[in-house]
User: Fold this.
Amino acid sequence: MIRFLILSGYFEWMMYLQVSGKLDQYINVHYRYLIFLTMFLSLLLALVQLRIWASGKEQQLVHEGHDHGLNKPYQRGMAYLLLVLPLIAGTLFPTISLDTTIVEAKGFSFPISKESVGDPEMSTQYLKPDTSIYYNKSDYNDQMTKLMKKYEADQQLVITDENYLEMMELIYNYPNSFVGKKVSFSGFVYEANKNNQKYDFLFRFGIIHCVADSGVFGLMTKLPEHLTVKNNQWLHVEGILTLDFFEPFDRQIPSVEVSSVQTVSAPKNQYVYRAF
Assistant:
C-alpha cells in the first residue's frame, strides 16, 4: 500500500505542477513531454501496486524474501524514505521567481561563475548562455554556424522569449558580426557599481535544461542620462549593438546604445528557455 501511495503521489505532484503552471520553474518547458511520460509511468506502476496489494500478494512477497533484497523493516523504511524525499521537498519548499537579489548575492562573472548550484559538473551561468558544455567542440561549432545563418542577414534583431538564449549566445560568441545592428529586447534592470562606476544591465533568468543550469543572461545597456531606473524594474529597449569596455572584466563586452526605452510589466513567466 505504501508503494501505491508514493507512486500515486508522484502522479498527483506532476499533475499539480502542470495545472498550477509551476512546472516551468523546474525544467525547460521544451522537455514537457518527459513530465507526461513520468506521469503515465507513475500512474501505471501505482495501479500495478494497488492490484498487488488488493490481491494480498504484497505481504506474501515480503514474507518469502522476494522484496528486492530488502528483508529487514529498517531497510524497507530507508528505501521508502528515499523515494518520498522528492515529494516532501516539492510540496514543502515553495518555488519563487528569481530577481536581482541573487545577482547581488553572488555577483557575476564571464562567462561562467565558480559558484556551484549543487551539481559538481555544473556552475551558475551569467551574461552569456554557454551550451558548449553539452557538445563536443565540432558539434558545438556546427550548432553555432547553423544558428548564425538564421540571423546574420538581419539588420534588426528582435529578441523574444523564444529566441532569447540562442540570440544572447550568438551575440557573445560573434560580437563583431552584430555590432552596428539594431536590437530590441525586454528584461529587468540590474545596476552594478564597480570601482565607483555605474553599469546598467538588462537581464532575464534562463533555463537551459533544468533549474540546475539556470542563470542570468543579458546585455550591458547605455541608457539615456536623464532616465532614472531601479533594480528589478522591467524595460523594453531598442538601440544599436556596440562593444564597450567593462573595467571589472578588463575586456570589451557587447552593449546596447539605447535609443528608445519603455517601462513594461513583468511577464507572467519571467524565465526564458533554450530550444534545441
In short: The beta strands are 112-116, 123-127, 156-158, 182-194, 197-207, 215-222, 234-246, 251-263, 271-273. Confidence is low (pLDDT under 50) at residues 110-122. Residues 164 and 272 are 7 Å apart (CA to CA).
